[in-house]
Structures are given as C-alpha cells and as structure tokens.
Amino acid sequence: MIRVYVDAAFSNGNAGVGVVIYDGEKQNVQSFYIQNVKDNHHAEFQAMLLALDYIIDNALHRNTIQLFSDSLVVVKAIERLSAKNEWQHAYVEQLKERLSQFSLYFVNWFSQKDNQFVDKVAKRALLSGQDVV
C-alpha cells in the first residue's frame, strides 16, 4: 500500500504545497509553489490534485493508495465525490477524473499536529517561492 500525505500553506494569494509519498521503505518528497490562489481551501484541493497527478504520472495508481489530508473539506469531497459548494464543483470533477484511474484508494483525515513533516514541506515551498522536487 502506498501512503500519500498532502498539505498546503497559504499567504497573500500564494500557496506552497507539500506531497510526501511512502512506497514501502522509499520516501518521495515534493513541494510546489502556486501563485494566484484564492484561499487555503483552494490550495488544499490543488495539493491533492498535484499528488494524484504524480501518482498517475509515475504509474503508482495501480497500487492500493491511502490518501491523507488535514483538510476536512477535501476529504469529505473525495468521500462524497460531490461538491458541497458551487466553488468546489470544478475541483470535484477533476478529482473524479483522476480517481477513476485508481484501482483502489482510501482517503483519511489526519490532524494538523500529525502532519508536521508535510506541513514543513508546504511551508518551505511557500517561503522559497519555487518548486522543490
């Protein structure tokens, strides 16, 4: 089972995204800098989409995937595969398109205190203003 942790850090319309993937003993850490982000919720959705893109691009989606996010909004959207609010609709459609390619996945919420490593990865991207892959 592959475990994927995502988080976003947001400030003044910019976001840093952290993605940490554990594949057995291997750890893959990615961070992305995104400009013109509306708020932290949008950044959290973008974090999950970037993680899913990485999984698909690297052919990991054939494995069982366990997704972790500290954003309850994102976790609930994936569980329901429907948008609670109008602004979420485009994100949910993108999530559905990507997740339809997965063999089996689970999504879990985890607390901010439990995501300190991926939080640091996201903040590093935000503060540096660049992707760190």
Q: What can you tell me about this protein's structure?
A:
This protein is an alpha/beta fold and 133 residues long. It contains four helices and five strands. It has a single domain, classed as Nucleotidyltransferase, domain 5. The chain has helices at 40-57, 72-80, 89-99, 116-128; strands at 2-11, 14-23, 26-34, 64-69, 104-109. Strands 3-2-1-4-5 form a five-stranded mixed beta sheet. The radius of gyration is 14 Å and the shape is globular. The model has no long low-confidence stretch (mean pLDDT 95).
Keywords summarizing the entry:
single chain; 133 residues; alpha/beta; Nucleotidyltransferase, domain 5; 5 strands; 31% strand
Q: Helical region count? A: 4
Kindly report the average pLDDT value.
95
CATH class: Alpha Beta
As residue ranges, the low-confidence spans are none
Q: What would CATH call the architecture?
A: 2-Layer Sandwich
* Rg estimate, integer Å: 14 Å
How many beta-strand runs?
Answer: 5
Shape: globular
Helical content class: 25-40%
Major sheet: arrangement of strands: 3-2-1-4-5
| Structural class by helix and strand composition | alpha/beta
Subunit organisation of the chains? single chain
CATH topology type: Nucleotidyltransferase, domain 5
Main β-sheet description: 5 strands, mixed
Strand content: 25-35%
Give me the CATH superfamily. Ribonuclease H-like superfamily/Ribonuclease H
When the domains are counted, the total is: 1
